[in-house]
Every structure is written in structure tokens, then in C-alpha cells.
Automatic annotation (TrEMBL):
This is Right handed beta helix domain-containing protein. The lineage of its organism: Eukaryota, Metazoa, Ecdysozoa, Arthropoda, Hexapoda. The keyword Acetylation does not apply. Residues 79-164 form the Right handed beta helix domain. It comes from Allacma fusca. Keywords: Signal.
Length: 309
């Protein structure tokens, strides 16, 4: 068993000079202690093994000194509820696995976090969820699969924002400028691969690969990506096999609200390998919002139609 080791040093991460303590951990108690005391510039380094507990942190890094938690893929965070619950900002989560819990990684009230090279799998509900005004976060180079094993209607791979029915004081849950880049999502994500909720805006969905096998269609979960937010760029993605459509855009606001969602989104250079009769890019309420764009660079194979726009 590794002993907890604290090493003061300087590390260069993503061009940022990080000075702080390295917490070498191999037990749940060591990890909990590190999560409760970590400071800007610190690194939590996980040894291989299973960490089963209610793991969370509300500590914050800074733009120049983020907090890093990293480990190999066989360092597995698990729990009956959330595998890891982050309530802080300026973190880098790297390399480890979140698995075998109710939800994978949930970020609440957290901004400027990076989730990279993670494996998120075998979860009762969603894999990665940004909620409660968590903006400017990045998910890249991750693998997300086998989600919604017990509640398929809540088994999204990656979930941005919240349904308007869960907004606090009827105010949009502004999880804005989220970037989802170069991830492999599916198979067996029972909900959509990515679900982008109304009230969010200005994100980037780029370079991802979707395998739609295992979509459940419980809560209309019949596409790789569902866009209810505004001003998203969706580009360079590839999808294989779907129940109905590849990408769906829809308004999800009440008719009497005077607000329309699912506007000003741009789709370009995406490829849909459908094996279904629907659309590569489908607009459920195209009459409500004429400002979406589907460029000619999108391509389609094996059934379906390109778009109804």
C-alpha cells in the first residue's frame, strides 16, 4: 500500500506553471483527506485500485494554478450515488475511471474545469452532467458507454444543463460555453449520447464519435445528440447506427412563455452512418426558429435523409 506522500514541486501542465503539493493516494481515506484540503496548484495522484465512497470536493483552483486529479484507467471511482461530485472550479480530471454508480461525474456550480482521457461507464443514469450554472468546462478524449443501465430514460452519455422543470425560481440553468471534443460516446448509452438542455448556449460539439446501439427511446431517446440550447457549433462529428435521427434540434419551452429554444445552431462536416429511416439532422420545430444552419459539408450514408430544414 502506498503511503500518503506530499511533495512540493513545480509542474508544467498545458502551458501553465503549477506549483503545489503532490498527494499520492491509494486508499479512500487518503483520497478524502486530499479532496478536502487540496489547494490551487496541487495534484492528487491516484494509484490503481477501487475507491468506493461518496467522493466530492468544493475546493477551487485558479486559472494559473488549477487543481489536478489524475490516475490510470484502473483507478476506479465508484459509489452507490455519484462516482465523483465536483463543486469547484479550475480542476483537471485526467485518466481515471468513474464506474458502477448511479451517476458518473457530476459538476455543480463549477467552471473552467477540464475532464480528459477519462473512462465513464456502467452507470444507472447519466455519465457526465454539468448542472447549476457550470460554464466554461471542457470534456475531451473521454470514453463514455453503458449508461442508463437501470433508468434508461435518464441514461445520457453527457448532459448539459437541466430540463426547465428543474430550474430554480424558473431561471434558466445557464451552463454555457461547454466544449465536448474528440470523445467516444456509446455503445449502450440508453439516453442520447449528448443532451443539451434549453437555457444553455454557445457550446462546441466537435470531433466526437457516437455509436447509437443501445438507445432506449424511453424519453424520445432516439438520436446521438439532442440540441435544445442555442448558438451551438456542431462540427466534425461521426455517428454510427441510430434509432431515428442523428442530430435533433427542438424547442422545449412552453408555448405561452414567449421564448423559443434551439436557435442559431450551426452543423457542418458531420457524417451520419444511419441505418435508420430518419434524418441526419432533424428540426422538430423548424417553423419557430429560422436561424439554424446546416452546411453542405455534412454527409450521409446507409439510409435516411440529410435534413428537413
Amino acid at each position: 500500500m502506498l503511503c500518503p506522500v506530499k511533495i512540493l514541486g513545480i509542474v508544467v501542465v498545458l502551458g501553465v506553471s503549477v506549483q503545489g503539493v503532490v498527494h499520492q493516494v491509494s486508499t479512500v481515506s487518503q483520497l478524502k483527506n486530499a479532496l478536502s484540503s487540496v489547494n490551487p496548484g496541487d495534484i492528487i495522484r491516484l494509484a490503481a485500485g477501487t475507491y468506493k465512497a461518496g467522493l466530492n470536493s468544493d475546493r477551487n483552483g485558479t486559472a494559473t494554478n488549477p487543481i489536478i486529479m489524475e490516475g490510470p484507467a484502473d483507478a476506479i471511482l465508484t459509489n452507490t450515488n455519484y462516482a465523483f461530485h465536483l463543486l469547484g472550479s479550475y480542476w483537471i480530471l485526467r485518466g481515471f475511471t468513474a464506474a458502477n454508480g448511479k451517476k458518473g461525474i457530476v459538476v455543480d456550480y463549477g467552471g473552467h474545469n477540464i475532464l480528459e482521457n477519462l473512462t465513464v461507464r456502467d452507470l444507472e443514469e447519466e455519465g457526465i452532467h454539468f448542472r447549476f450554472f457550470s460554464s466554461d468546462n471542457i470534456v475531451r478524449n473521454c470514453k463514455v458507454y453503458n449508461t442508463g443501465t437501470k433508468r434508461p430514460g435518464y441514461g445520457e452519455g453527457i448532459y448539459i444543463g437541466q430540463d426547465r422543470g428543474k430550474w430554480v425560481n424558473n431561471q434558466p440553468d445557464k451552463c454555457d460555453r461547454i466544449q465536448i471534443i474528440n470523445n467516444t460516446i456509446g455503445p449502450n448509452c440508453a439516453g442520447e449520447g449528448i443532451d443539451i438542455k434549453e437555457g444553455t448556449c454557445c457550446g462546441l460539439i466537435k470531433g466526437n464519435y457516437f455509436d447509437g446501439h443501445g438507445l432506449s427511446d424511453v424519453n424520445s431517446d432516439d438520436s446521438w445528440v439532442d440540441v435544445k440550447g442555442d448558438s451551438y457549433i456542431v462540427e466534425d462529428n461521426r455517428g454510427y447506427w441510430t434509432l431515428e435521427d442523428g442530430f435533433q434540434v427542438r424547442d422545449h419551452m412552453p408555448v405561452d412563455s414567449g421564448i423559443v429554444s434551439g436557435c442559431n445552431n450551426v452543423f457542418r462536416r458531420n457524417h451520419c452512418d444511419m441505418y435508420a429511416s430518419g434524418y441526419c439532422i432533424y428540426f422538430a420545430n423548424k417553423g419557430k426558429c429560422a436561424s439554424n444552419t446546416v452546411e453542405d459539408s455534412n454527409t450521409l450514408t446507409n439510409g435516411g435523409q440529410m435534413t428537413n430544414l
